[in-house]
From TrEMBL:
The keyword Kinase applies. It comes from the Bacteria. Signal peptide: none annotated. One of its GO terms (molecular function) is phosphorelay sensor kinase activity. One of its GO terms (cellular component) is plasma membrane. The keyword Kinase applies. This is Histidine kinase.
Amino acid sequence: MKHVKRMDESILVCVYYGLNGERLIRRGHKLATLLDCPLYILTVDAKPLDAFDAEKSGYIERWSELSRELEVEEFIIRDNEKHPIQKVVAEIAREKNITQIIVGQSAQSRWEEITKGSFLNVLLKEVPFADFHIVAVKRPVDEEHETFEKGVRAYVVQDLDNYKIVFTCPKSVSIEGIFFKELGTDFDNGIFKFSHQNKMNEVRIKEGLVTNPHLIHSIYGVSNI
């Protein structure tokens, strides 16, 4: 029998691209678990989904995976959105009967605007029935994007006994993912991230070659990709 959650409380987590999205989702899940209430995740973008670059697509994929893992009520993607963010937040809040909203303060996120007086005042007027949690998240010095360039779409293909990374869609069988190149190197050194069976995986790349091919073998169970 499915567990019935209380409906007098409902939490909305607003995420935008950057390092803090997963932290905010987990913070929201922790609070929703304590309150035994529904949890919703919202992200807003002015561009349509099919126009997202590899980095944005990677975040969407990870948040979708995390939403399934944590069994959130719904992961809401408002793409191709022309309305102001606060209007969208208000619309979703009313539609889902939201009582608490979690947003993050991040140097890399448009949601940081919520911490500024004018925007916050507008949002409070739009959603007077909800409590707001403004979460200040400190960026660790060892996070990926401190030492890696912006992610780009890439492919791993088999090359004799090795696996190499290429940046144009190959005709041969390949693994599609996102490559984060290390800063300050002229070689293709970095991390390649890809999804398999709704889980994110990563392998190290050194001078264009996968350094831990056993992970590829263990996932696919064969020597060929």
